[in-house]
Design goal:
Blueprint (H helix, E strand, L loop, with lengths): L10 H21 L4 H11 L11 H5 L4 H14 L1
Amino acid sequence: MLDYTRKFDLTQEKDKEIKEILSSVYLSLQEKGYNPVNQIVGYILSEDPTYITNHNNARSLIRRIDRDELLQALVRSYLTK
C-alpha cells in the first residue's frame, strides 16, 4: 500500500471561475461605454462596487469573487504567460 498524501488544489478551477466572471464584467462595462480596465482597477483598489455597472448583473457577479483571490489570479495569470 502506498503511504503518501495527495494534494488537492482548486487553484485552476477557481482561476477559471474568476476569468469567466471578470470577462463577463468586462463586456458589461464595455457595452455601457465605460473603460473596463479603469473601472475594474478602481473596484480592486477600493472594493467599492459602484465602479461596476449593474448591467447584466455585473456588480453582483464581481462581488462573488474575494478581492484577494482576484489579485492572486491576476498575478498568476500575468506571470505565467
